[in-house]
Amino acid sequence: MLRAEAIEIDPQRFQFKIKASSQGATGSLAGVSSWSQSAEGVLDVWLDPVNLKTYVVNGHNRLGLAKRQIGRASGRERV
Questions:
Q1: Which residues, listed in sequence order, are joined to residue 47 by a DSSP beta bridge?
Q2: Which residues touch 24 (CB under 8 Å, ≥6 apart)?
Q3: Which of its termini does the chain have fewer beta carbons within 10 Å around, N or C?
Q4: Each residue of 34-75: pLDDT tens digit?
């Protein structure tokens, strides 16, 4: 598991959906207020060998939800 804060976004490289926000999210989880491991599932991430940063490549909405939960001090720190 990774800390949500440690996962970077780069929608220009990794988000193919046309209506995605600048964060790469489409808003499909905008109204969700609690994390469910069984519903949210797993994120796909990639470690860039050039800059050694970890990027989300699939799961921008789930990462956004996890980061919102951290902001609410829900205890959801890792995805």
A1: 54
A2: 9, 10, 11, 14, 15, 56, 60
A3: N
A4: 655 655 667 899 999 999 999 999 888 788 878 877 766 545
